[in-house]
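Tokens in:
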């Protein structure tokens, strides 16, 4: 009986602590003035492929830019460039660079990259091109092999950048 009461009391104290933590967090967040730079802003470069798909090339919140996945599409025709993974990687990087520059950033500001490739047989070729954009102190990166990408692409790049 005493053991059951102790367990119930401990559970009640745990729940009370959780609720108190939530209340304190909400109150402290509510007291902080809203930063005008923290608003969500769509980044849409003029020189960007227009696929008509429902996504934004980039979203800037404060000093952080979230860059959507970009294929190696020609910015004029919106068609996938031909010539293999090296050509696609160069074009995807160029497209991402336009998003970065529109937000007042460049590759030096990239903190994280997720690279999707359709074959690890292309990994060395991909890296040879990728490394030219990040020659020193490259960002954190995950490279994932996927079964397929839109329009038969071989590579798609997604990034997060932080203005310094």
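Residues out:
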């Amino acid at each position: 009986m005493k053991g059951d009461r102790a367990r119930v009391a401990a559970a009640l104290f745990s729940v009370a602590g959780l609720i108190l933590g939530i209340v304190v967090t909400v109150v402290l967040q509510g007291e902080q003035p809203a930063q005008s730079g923290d608003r969500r802003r769509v980044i849409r470069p003029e020189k960007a492929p227009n696929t008509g798909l429902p996504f934004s090339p980039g979203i800037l919140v404060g000093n952080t830019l979230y860059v959507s996945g970009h294929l190696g599409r020609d910015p004029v025709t919106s068609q996938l460039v031909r010539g293999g993974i090296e050509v696609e990687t160069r074009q995807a990087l160029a497209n991402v660079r336009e998003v970065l520059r529109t937000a007042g950033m460049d590759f030096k500001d990239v903190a994280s990259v997720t690279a999707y490739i359709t074959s690890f047989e292309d990994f060395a070729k991909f890296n040879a091109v990728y490394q030219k954009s990040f020659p020193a102190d490259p960002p954190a990166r995950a490279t994932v092999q996927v079964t397929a990408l839109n329009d038969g692409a071989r590579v798609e790049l997604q990034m997060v950048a932080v203005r310094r």
